[in-house]
Amino acid sequence: MPDPQSLPLQQAMHRLHITDHKDIKIVSFIENKILDEANITEIGAALVALVEARQRPKLVLDFKNVDHLSSAALGMLINVNQKIKLQSGELRLIEIKPQIMEVFVITRLNKLFKILPDREQALESFSPA
User: Fold this and answer.
1) Separation between Cα atoms, residue 66 and residue 107, nearest integer Å
2) Residues paired with 20 in a beta bridge
3) pLDDT tens sequence for the chain (129 residues)
4) What is the pTM of this model?
5) Would you put residue 92 in left (φ > 0), alpha (ψ -120 to 50) or beta?
6) Closest CA to 104 of 95, 94, 116, 113
7) Of 13, 20, 90, 17, the residue nearest 51 (C-alpha)
8) Given 3-state DSSP classes, what are the helix, strand and coil percentages for the chain, each rounded to the nearest 5?
9) 78: number of Cβ within 10 Å
10) In CATH, which superfamily holds the domain spanning 4-125?
11) Which of 37, 41, 33 is nearest to 12 (CA)?
């Protein structure tokens, strides 16, 4: 019988590429548009499952492939960020394209999230384990 917690991860695997770097999970979005409500729900459930699997989760979300993000996707990111904070974890967003960064700035989400240019800087920015 599959672990019920791994179900959201399995469903979202074709939307996310997840790798590990020490105690940090690096999540890359595969699709270039995160607009559809069902996709966002799946991605959100998978990210929450990753967060809940650790005591102090450390997550890097890589937006290199993403060209379009809906307001519902932004809401999902805010929820994931809150869950991480509740567990004394850390979240970094990287490789955000200028047109999406503009949305983060307009909505002031650039103040809420720690946004860095690339993976190397994100990995260096985490507090030591």
Assistant:
1) 18
2) 25
3) 445 556 666 766 788 999 999 999 999 999 999 999 999 999 999 999 999 999 999 999 999 999 999 999 999 999 999 999 999 999 999 999 999 999 999 999 999 999 999 999 999 999 886
4) 0.91
5) beta
6) 113
7) 90
8) 45, 20, 30
9) 14
10) STAS domain (3.30.750.24)
11) 41
Q: Is 43 in contact with 34 (CB distance < 8 Å)?
A: yes
Q: How many Å apart are CA 21 and CA 3, to the nearest integer?
A: 24
SS3 32: coil
Residue 82, helix vs strand vs coil: helix
Report how far residue 85's alpha carbon sits from residue 34's, in angstroms, rounded to the nearest whole number: 23
* pLDDT at residue number 128: 80
Q: How far is CA 30 from CA 48, 50, 74, 101, in A?
A: 18, 17, 17, 18
Structure-token match 């937006």, residue found? 63
- Could you tell me the sign of the dihedral formed by the alpha carbons of 107, 61, 125, 128, in that order? positive
